[in-house]
Design a protein that fits this description.
The protein has 160 residues and is mainly alpha-helical. 85% of the residues lie in helices and 0% in strands. It is rod-shaped and about 120 Å long.
């Protein structure tokens, strides 16, 4: 159990330090902050729930995570379209995080399993090759035995 926890901890740390994870985190959060800023510019003059930038940032994170508390709701058409875009982005963002996490936790195991399967495939192919050689040898032996049997039968017929 302790070794397994250590293994998963090191894999998780490796994931967090990996360039894809860092890039995704920076790009995703940067886009959320940019959308928050745009939302604040559009909604703060007309939306009584958007008084400060943090309200727009709260809305963007609640939207991108698809939690959608409903405490801050866009009033303008462009704000609603921005929300739809954030919802779609959130789905893709978290699906990508999930894939990265699954790969970090299981990727090595699948890689090792794939190597073992390839080794087994080679072994089976080798066994089939050996069996075909054995089969050829048996066929030759049977042919020789058949030929010898025929010779013996001919000799017996001559003796009769």
């Amino acid at each position: 159990m302790k070794k397994s926890l250590s293994t998963y901890s090191s894999r998780l740390l490796g994931l967090i330090k990996s360039p894809p994870f860092i890039s995704l985190t920076i790009a995703g959060n940067g886009l959320i902050i940019l959308c928050s800023f745009i939302f604040y510019l559009i909604e703060s003059p007309i939306n009584p729930k958007v008084l400060h930038f943090i309200d727009a940032l709260w809305w963007a994170f609640a939207t991108v995570t698809t939690v959608g508390y409903g405490d801050v709701v866009p009033q303008s058409i462009f704000g609603k379209l921005l929300g739809i875009g954030l919802m779609l982005m959130g789905t893709g963002l978290f699906a990508t995080y999930t894939a990265l996490f699954a790969n970090a936790m299981l990727g090595r195991a699948f890689s090792r399993l794939d190597k073992k399967v390839k080794i087994i495939d080679k072994s089976v192919a080798g066994m089939q090759y050996e069996m075909s050689h054995e089969e050829l040898h048996l066929e030759k032996s049977l042919a020789q035995l058949g030929k010898r049997l025929k010779e013996i039968e001919e000799k017996i017929d001559k003796l009769k």
